[in-house]
Amino acid sequence: MSDKELASAIDSDRICFNYSDFLSASCKKRWSFVDAIYGVLPIFGMVTRKSAHSVQASNEQLKELALQIISTQVSDEINIARLITLAEQQQIGRFTIQLPYPLSAQQLEAIHHEYRKPLNLSQRDDLLCILIPGVSH
After folding, report:
1. Secondary structure of the chain in the HEC alphabet?
2. Could you tell me the maximum CA-CA distance found in the chain, to the nearest angstrom?
3. How many whole angstroms separate alpha carbon 20 and alpha carbon 4?
4. Which pLDDT tens digits describe the chain residue by residue (137 residues)?
């Protein structure tokens, strides 16, 4: 993807997750037993807490769901793969993640490995643009 296409993709994305905010909120969160289970088994949480109107979920609902699956106990690559899985489940095919630092090539490869499905990742400084092929929104 050229710089021009990347800039266009960044500008056209309506959803941008601020990864640092999620980590900060995760550290401050008071965990219940159910939250702890969702933290260990995030797929369980995504499936059971998924809204009936998930396709039309608001930014706030997405951020709330994302907060349930982000953990300071796992690597950034795993957390980002979890965010991508959540976006896919919510039918969000394009979004950005504001990171505290640019990712290395090895970290990008680890995200691809963890997610295990076709995925386009583009990076401009500390913005990671995600495009999930086949997801319509």
Report:
1. CCHHHHHHHHHHCCCEEEHHHHHHHHHHCCCCHHHHHHHHCHHHHHHHCCCCCHHHCCHHHHHHHHHHHCCCCCCHHHHHHHHHHHHHHCCCCEEEEECCCCCCHHHHHHHHHHHCCCCEEEEECCEEEEECCCCCC
2. 47
3. 26
4. 333 433 434 444 468 888 887 777 665 555 555 555 555 555 444 444 444 444 344 567 777 888 888 888 889 999 999 999 998 988 889 999 999 999 999 999 999 999 999 999 999 999 999 999 988 66
The two three-digit tokens of residue 2, written as one number: 């050229």
Q: Are strands 120-124 and 94-98 parallel, antiparallel or unpaired?
A: unpaired
Contact assessment for residue 46 and residue 86, using Cβ atoms and an 8 Å cutoff: yes
Full-model pTM: 0.69
16-18 vs 94-98, strand pairing mode? parallel
* CA nearest to 46, candidates 97, 75, 92, 89: 89
